[in-house]
Amino acid sequence: MDVPCVRVRPQAGEETRQALAARDLLADDYEITVEDGWLYIPVTDRVEGYDVVAHDAPSRAGQTLPGDLLGFEPSYERLGDIAIVEEDDLERARAIADALVDSDLPIESVLNRASKIKGDLRVRDWDVLAGSTRTVHREYGAEFELDLAQVYFSPRLATERHRVVSQVEAGERAFDMFAGVGPFAIPMALRGATVVGADLNEAAVEFLERNAARNGVEARVTAIPGDVRDVEGYDDWADRLVMNLPHSADAFLDTAVRLAGEDCTLHYYDIQHEDDPFGPGERAIRAAAEPDYEVRVETRRRVRSYAPHELNVCLDVRLRRR
Predict the structure, then answer these.
(1) Quick one: which of 29, 9, 6 has its CA closest to 19?
(2) Domain, as residue range, for 84
(3) What's the burial of 315, exposed, middle or buried (CB within 10 Å: 0-12/13-18/19+)?
(4) Euclidean distance between the first and the last CA atom of the chain, given in angstroms as a whole number
């Protein structure tokens, strides 16, 4: 059947497969095929940065898949060895969980979303249908240990994180103002940056420290628990700032300006109406940074749809002290 596939030349196949596997984007239930000089790698979703086409990929021979056990194809999201579902019917959710665990897919746990993201710590409630809420997620060569019952993490932002991290150069000083378990901070450190990560969620900060050690960058990562507005000792310090706190980042712009060095790149995430997705963020940044800084918006990027008529966007902004 036709499924989305990344199309590459065979000589780039293994490198591409490993990169997609690191982001949990491989569609394990379909075979990788070669046709007319092209390699077709089935993926779970559309992948930015690759040539994605619809291709008739055969089901993996001899593999028992969830759909084989259920009689229909369930919808789920992968995070490490956790499958995440969103089902209102608890009986249906449990049947899907049983099929996911009993299939040949590398799934150990199944969670059903039981609430929206809530509170200052940005966590949600889960119905644990199988296994536990803990896992190790792999993304672009980095590993992140986490517990979804304690921290927020979205695998859907892997491509966006990689875009930002790819801009980092060795020797930079980077400050992630809402660091979580380290999906920005750890890869920036792996590229040779000195990184400070702050987070209000103490559990997330503990995972950030463990993930720094897990990835061998503990000497370049400083993890700080608490409100970033209370952090001292880093005024005029940062060459790069990450502000991934949509809905609320504008409330922290005065702190961002305080942390920014002479020449600083700011990655500002926002959620706004599709009619003017970038204007409110740009105006807020200018109000906080001017006239002390020259403000230049280098990239206006639509990251993903968030809700009907609302977009999750990113502004990459260069701040240069006048």
Answers:
(1) 6
(2) 66-132
(3) buried
(4) 59
What is the spatial distance between Cα 100 and Cα 106, in angstroms, rounded to a whole number? 9
Using DSSP bridges, classify how beta strands 142-147 and 134-139 pair: parallel, antiparallel or unpaired: antiparallel
Alpha carbon dihedral 166, 169, 173, 175, in 10-degree steps, equals 0
3-state secondary structure of 244: coil
Residue 304 DSSP class? E
Residue 132 is encoded by which pair of tokens? Answer: 């536990």
CATH of the domain at 123: 3.30.300.110
At 183-241, the pLDDT tens digits run: 999 999 999 999 999 999 999 999 999 999 999 999 999 999 999 999 999 999 999 99
Q: Summarize pLDDT for 148-185 with one digit per residue, the tens.
A: 999 999 888 888 999 999 999 999 999 999 999 999 99
Query: Positive or negative CA dihedral for 142, 147, 149, 151?
Result: negative
Question: Which H or E run includes 101?
Answer: helix 90-102
Element holding 258 (H helix, E strand): helix 253-259
Contact 137, 80 (CB under 8 A): yes
With 0-12 / 13-18 / 19 or more C-beta atoms within 10 angstroms meaning exposed / middle / buried, residue 106 is exposed
CA dihedral (280, 284, 287, 291) in degrees, to 10, reads: -100
Residue 245 belongs to domain with CATH number = 3.40.50.150
Which of 226, 165, 174, 225 has the alpha carbon at shortest distance from 22?
A: 165
Counting beta carbons within 10 angstroms of the beta carbon of residue 204, is it exposed (0 to 12), middle (13 to 18) or buried (19 or more)?
buried
Rounded (5°) CA angle 299-263-288: 70
Q: Which two tokens stand for residue 101?
A: 């665990």
Q: How far apart are CA 77 and CA 148, in angstroms?
A: 14
Does any domain span residue 61? no
* Same domain assignment for residues 12 and 113: no
Whether the Cβ atoms of residue 236 and residue 261 lie closer than 8 Å to each other: yes
